[in-house]
Specification:
The structure holds 2 protein chains of 2 kinds. Chain A is built from 14 helices and no strands. Chain A is mainly α. In chain A, helix 3 packs across helix 7, helix 10 crosses helix 14 and helix 12 packs antiparallel against helix 13. Chain A has 2 domains: 62 residues, no CATH class; 215 residues, MetI-like (MetI-like fold, Orthogonal Bundle). Chain A starts with 6 loop residues before the first helix and ends with a helix. By secondary structure, chain B is mainly alpha-helical. Chain B has 2 domains: 174 residues, no CATH class; 233 residues, MetI-like (MetI-like fold, Orthogonal Bundle), CATH 1.10.3720.10. Chain B is 69% helix and 1% strand. In chain B, strands 1-2 form a two-stranded antiparallel sheet. In chain B, helix 5 packs antiparallel against helix 7. Classes of the chains: A mainly alpha, B mainly alpha.
Chain lengths: 291, 465
Amino acid sequence: MKEKEPKMHMQHRRLSNAIAYAVLILISLIWLFPFICLVLQSFRSYTEGGGAMVNYLLPKKFSLDSYKALFGEESQFFKWYGNTLIIATFVSIFQTIFILAVSYSLSRFRFKGRELLMRFWLILGMFPGFLSMICLYFLLKQFGLTQSGAIPGLILVGFASSGMGYYVCKGYFDTIPKSLDEAARIDGANRAQIFGIMLLPLSKPIVIYTALVAFMAPWCDYIFASYIAFGYSDSYNVAVAMYRWVNTNDYQGYFTRFCAGGILIAVPITILFMCLQKYYVEGVTGGAVKG
Amino acid sequence: MEKKSSGVFAKVSAFFKAVAANLKEIGTTFTEGDWKTKVSYVIMGFGPLMRKQYLRGAAFLAIELGFIYYMVSFGAFYLKDITTLGTQGRGFNPDGTVSYGDNSFLILLYGLLSLILIALLILVWRMNISENRREEQHIKEGRPLPTVMHDIKSLLDEKFCFTLLAIPTLGIFVFIVLPIIFMICIAFTNYDANHQAPAQLFTWVGLENFKNLFSFGQAGFGGTFITILIWTLIWAFFATFLNYFMGMAVAILINKKGIKFKKLWRTILVMTIAVPQFVSLLYVSKMFAADGLVNAYLMKWGIIKTAIPFWTNATYAKILIIVLNLWVGIPYVMLVCTGLLMNIPEDLYESARIDGANPIQMFVKITLPYMLFVTGPFLLTQFTGNLNNFNVIYLLSGGGPQHMKLVGGAGYTDLLVTWLYKLTINDTNYKMAAVIGIMVFAVTAVVSLVVYGMLPSVRDEEGFQ
């Protein structure tokens, strides 16, 4: 069936593909460049510049100095790493539960005040998050959840108000036909059972998406974490601690250590992300279209 | 315009009608009700308890008792001072000990909480009355009242949504609603570095702070506010639409027929989403520092003589931030667009090709209208998200470069939100931070409302079900 393409056409296509490949390779280089630099710098020996920033790319001597410093005894790096991991895990679990609960309610029930509630939350979402920072800090302080208690405090702040982020998940639930619910009800299931036994297994992609997004956020949380853990370095998360490495006066000696720490953080998260990439794409695409 | 005002009028009159109807029902329930119902007006849940509706009755009673306990032990003490926010400053007693005086912060916070709880109690009280009325009607008609078991079961079935919503809603109330109301109130007080609770008092000052925001004198915030507002809007515009079109272009490029390793290209781009931003952006920010990698190589290769002041020149910094944000944003848009592009029916392109359309014409006539239609809500959320894009700005430039002309520690690449953050953290100028926060809300709300009205894809919520 397929006709042979005219010669002119084929040449044209080959040329345009060549250009496309060239552009793609260029793009890839630009996008990978910072990561390559990061890896290279993290292996630079202390003998060059003593761990400070230098103005060339390729280290003259490779070594594990920076990594050794991170694993060293007086280093708190793994304390911070553990803090962040704990926060991320708990936030991910609770936030997923909250979002699923809210999404199911708003997708499947038509109760009085539902529209009002959704509109109210939409308006609340337009206020900038850290407007409420001082007040939250104070509330947490009342319960001893700042400074030394900052880890549970950050977990609480991380998930407590997460119900408002139901849009993507509700959008997904909306696409699951309601006739399935009705069939299950005829079989004698109540709505809690429908949620747990029928809907959740059908929603695996969105559950994973929600959990993944919630898990990644605390790794970047600088603003609130720095405020709550202020001056108490045992409670820092990696973002707070490493921001100080780069942006306080002593950053000159900590630069390669920052790079090494960054690699230790980025590699596991990137691997996790790549494994679950399929679900992430499904979530963002669905969320983007349904709003 | 006329239609709108009549709509508002209709809403207002409907509201008052509803209030009147409610008041009437409260009255008739009282006059027509039996003695159990009448007692319920004072002791909530009394009627249901007497009618063996133990669960409901106990819930109402518990709420009333809890409220009374809160007010007596705690709330009333703060509520009484809410009009002044405290009059007794910190000082010394005659015997030399410190007298702590009033804490304006606590008075405002718990005073507000008390007011909200009072409003909620009125709501529950109203529910308590309709509950009594319903029960009486049921009894009159000879229908059985639901048992306790039945009530519990319904919480897992037709009322399951309330079970699910209870804790998330409480969380939102404590961690979002209460703090936001509190901070809105702060905008009308003089809470700043010179009036720090608990050592000093602060008090209501009316619209003083808003006047300050629009005053253009020496110490006024007007000039800085306008500068930052304009940059915030410019930033959000470029950050949204440049990313959008470039991201779509990359997606089309990867989707192009005959391109191999599609997955590889996508994965490389997606790396920027996976790596935590504070690692990648902080590193990139250092690359462009005066003594950073980029300047060093440009000088080594003899392209420039002196270092380019990427972060210390306002114009360079602004352009650089928008360009670097492409690095952050393109992969995300690319992901969103890839799937959608494949949804466009191939025969549309086929017939356009037969009609002799070139690729650019096809893009403008087929691809772009479809994508704009489908991704309208996405663009809107991207835009409002960029208005508040704290991370990219703060990690790249920290809002700098600062300048004497800008008050409140603001820099030329500060967005309203990063300025808000600096006012809170560095200047402890809480009152102006609160005012800026309200302004951010106003800008976001106006943009959302205007754009939402223009969206072609008016969403049909029930459409997919």
